[in-house]
Amino acid sequence: MAQRVGQKVKLSSIDELLGVPSMEGTVDLDVMTIYPFENHPFRVVDDEKMDELVESIKESGVLTPVLVRPDDEGNYEMISGHRRLHAAKRAGLRKIPAIIKEMTNDDATIAMVNANMQREEILPSEKAFALKMKMDAMKHQGKTTSSTEWTKSRAGDEAGEAHGLHRSQVHKYVRLTYLLPKLLDMIDEGRLAVAIGVEISYFNHTYQQWLWEYIHENGMIKQEQLMDLRQYRDDDSLTQEQMIDILIQKRATPQIKKKVTFNERKLNKYFPAYYSQPEIERIMISLLEEWKRTHESEGSE
Q1: What's the burial of 254, exposed, middle or buried (CB within 10 Å: 0-12/13-18/19+)?
Q2: Phi, psi of 76 (to 5 degrees)
Q3: Any idea what the Cα angle at residue 157 is, between residues 294 and 155, rounded to 5°?
């Protein structure tokens, strides 16, 4: 017996939904009954790839069903498939194959992020807001128990695990959500490095506005220029003129070449006499790399 349009389909796990679903258990939904996921962080744009998708749908139809969840008014919220839905409408389709799944708000958010993070090209801003939404949803699900305290580290580990991201990377991307939109646009356009954006994100919006004006007029800013501003992260006493003076002074200051030497007496305190110079250098570099990873992780949390 053919399924009725709108009949709810029960699947055994979220994993099934995030793979390539089979056509079995799908229904054809009116495209006008499907609306975007609330605060969907991934952009749907009419670019060359969208044009190609529209042409493909005109020729072969929608091959992979979208994933939706029903609401109380007989309509459906899109979980995975925003680009396919947009392309289907442009191609003139009135119906689209869909899998309907009952989900809580948190489960829907996690499924939406997991599905869309598989896309090949994701803007830093999209990744930032998606990871923040996922972390918030996981925390709201009740991950904290009486015996296990929810921490930033654990939240970052779990949110990034499915996407091959370390918790320090997750927290750096989430920091970008604290930026003014026009600064975030600069990062998406490749005019501002992610690391610089993370540093700026710790300043209040007034300071961020001044930094944007400086970058807009001067074309670039270096990490070293922001170091002397760190002391003003929680301080609103800085004037724009003072900020500009600090930035210009740091930019004009020549970089001093650093040279560190160790005499044999100092090295013998830590290394046996039979260690060769290459072996000592290898160990020291390894220890410095570990220090750097720890330092970066602490600075991003």
Answers
A1: exposed
A2: -140, 140
A3: 105
- What is the rounded CA–CA span in Å between residue 84 and residue 73? 23
Of 177, 178, 176, 152, the C-alpha closest to 166 is: 152
Model confidence pLDDT, tens digit, residues 44-67: 999 999 999 999 999 999 999 999
pLDDT digits (tens, 9 = 90+) for 187-211: 999 999 999 999 999 999 999 999 9
Cβ neighbours of residue 50 under 8 Å, at least 6 residues apart?
A: 44, 83, 86, 87, 90
SS3 239: coil
One-letter identity of residue 214: Y
Radius of gyration of the chain from its Cα atoms, rounded to whole angstroms: 25
Burial class (CB in 10 A: 0-12, 13-18, 19+), 47: exposed
Distances (CA, A) of 129 to 119, 126, 132, 162, 205: 15, 6, 5, 16, 18
What is the maximum span of the chain, computed from C-alpha positions, in angstroms?
86
Where would I find the H helices in the chain? Answer: 14-18, 48-60, 82-90, 105-116, 124-140, 152-161, 167-175, 181-188, 194-200, 205-218, 223-227, 240-252, 264-268, 277-300
State how far the Cα of 128 lies from the Cα of 113, in Å rounded to an integer: 11
